[in-house]
Write a structure and sequence with these properties.
The chain has 198 residues and is mainly β. The protein contains 2 helices and 10 strands; from the N terminus they run H-E-H-E-E-E-E-E-E-E-E-E.
Length: 198
Amino acid sequence: MSECKKLSYLLILAMTLFFVQEVKSQRAAIKTNIIYDVAATINAGAEFGLAPRWTLDVSGNFNAWNMPEGRKWKHWMAQPEARYWFCDRFAGHFLGFHIQGGQYNIGGLRNNINFLGTDFSKLSEHRFQGWFAGAGVGYGYTWILGKHWNLEAEIGVGYNYSRYDKFECEGCGRKVEENKEQHYVGPTKAALNLVYIF
């Protein structure tokens, strides 16, 4: 047998062993964000292994319920995230790089919050309806609870661009501003996920 054929067989064997190991170690997970659950926001996420230290997390949430006293907190959002794990996937420390987008209809939320240049107290007397898109970076940690169960915490910061219409009050339909823009820098992700791993 020639040296070239031996080298080809060794290369094929090495690639086969690598592929079998990768298939065996591929895992997927589904999850729910307990913070959103408490806020009565329907949410779900799925995470897939891409490489030994990389995963893709895709999550979304939806809230269409009416709140008491004419308050509005209706929205939907999708948030895919590439994650780099410092050790093994689905365990320990990770960094996340996310993008996000969605729509909202929010108003009548009494507060005095002014945070990093964004005046949230405007939500007390007005209603805002529009869309947003942005990106951010997050840090998280995952605790192994059992063979298939994990608990995961993550916080992220980033930038969002938004276009919205402003209405006179939370319950009425009189528009006072149209197609305004908002630039937001600050927290873009907060999660305490209960995770089931396949």
